[in-house]
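Morning!

As promised:
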Amino acid sequence: MEKEKAEMANTSSPEKLVSMANIRKSFGKVVVLKGVNFDVRYNEIVGLVGDNGAGKSTLIKILTGVHQPDRGEIYFKGKKITIHSVDMSRDMGIETVYQERALSEQQTMWRNIFMGRELTDRFGFLRIEEQKNETEKILREQMGFTSKAITTDSIVKSLSGGEKQGIAIGRALYFNAELIILDEPTMGLSLAETRRVLDFVGNIKEIGKSAIFISHNIYYVYPVADRFVILDRGSIAGEFLKAEISQDELVDKMVKLAKTGKIE
Amino acid sequence: MIAKTARARELRLELSILGVFGGIFLLFLIGNPDTFTRFDIYYSFMSTIPFSGIMALAITLVIIAGEMDLSFPSIMGFSGWVFAKLSNVLIDRGMDPNLTIILTTLCCFATGIAAGALNGLLVVNIRIPSLVATIGTMFLWRGLVNVCGQGYGETLVPVNETFLFKLYVGRIANTIPAQAIWFLGLTVIFWIILKRHRFGSHVLIVGDNVESARMMGIRVNRTKMLVFMQMGFFASLAGILASLEVTYLWPSLGEGYLLRTLAAVFIGGTSVFGGVGTIFGTFIGAIIIGSLEGGIVAIGLTGFWTQLIYGLIIVVSLSIYSYFRRRE
């Protein structure tokens, strides 16, 4: 992983990890996506922003196999693909950290990290030691938990909201996700906890993976994202590299968009 | 102390149940030292407790998975009836008893598993809440015993010389009832499955939060189906054991087991809300419930006291667990 990290950091590959071209999707008579082009490059954090109902969730659910697009093409690592199911998307290396976190609150950390993908022997018996050791690694190395109070045997219910989100992200990273989708990961978290989650997102970048960070809040997205895509009523309203735009300018554009429906 | 690790939580639960258990037996010992220092009463406990004990282990998994099954005593009755009736029919036709009991055992297990699968189907596919669905199947299987058996019992004397009979309910070294060994062995197996097997892990996770389980790719429906099927299977095993113990099938086999079996699980500390539970607790809970009646009479109270004391112990132990859970 260290080597991969170094390589990724040195070559800012222009190649795209995911490319969604001219994606259209409607539910009944409601057109939700009107031909959207959306890319994620290798080792890039994309901030996907936009108001409620802009189509962010639908776009993401097409990528994770929950919905099928009516029209348009998806390329993953340069190959054209059709994503039929959530399982298929996960097999390709797309992991989603859901708003509701998908944790089992009354279970231990080590059961949560491996839920649905337990390490077992031939007969289905758990390799508990191995699961605990791996969980310990994720805990200390990827999630940066240093507190002695949190162990692999901790019950998830006893953790804070930020720590829980950390588990969900750590889990996604562990399973070698190429692309991690974070759907409003800071929703309902305190300021300190939000900072924690933003640190986790920073980790994704550091270890050479890509992420899509969906949020309402520019102030959270701006520091961690490399590029911003603004979605508005089913179309891309604007796309900016962080180098091109300051946080205040980005906020101005969003405000303008909300008032006038146009970005300029 | 607030238990933040699973081990601490379990330890505390298991110590509380052991405390209750120890307290009750201490009372028995003080109340009637003569009886409780001799083997006889333990022999009688060992021969009667396993029937509901084995079903208590199975229903523990159902409850941990966030479901309920009220039909297992009726499944016990119906599959037991299939076992006894078929045994008599085959032996009347001249089949060898040893072969007969093997065959009828398989039919009995198949009946139990099928009955469990029907519960699973109603809950998973037709989406009837399990509490309601299994009220239906509870009447269904009991009704079937009544209709098919017309109120008649079936003798099991023809199979009581078979090898399998001895394996089920024989006396090891003429002292230990075989069913006690079954109960003990199954307790260990259930414990391992729940704690150290992928299936147990899925049962815990499904009972904890179905939506999370789905999002993480656990096959929720399959897990629930299997949980109901194993319940049916162990109800049928209990049916065989209980009827062979008295070498007679009463058409009412299973009646009276429902609440006592559930009480054993909840006294043991398994949560009614699903997601957490303990096999060790159920094991001890079953022993407590199963020994109370005999113990109460032995210490000189009349049988009229039994239910009152059941009630007290259930209320007290549940209050202790609830208090702990609230502090978590």
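Chain B has a mean pLDDT of 93.

Hope this helps with the figure draft.
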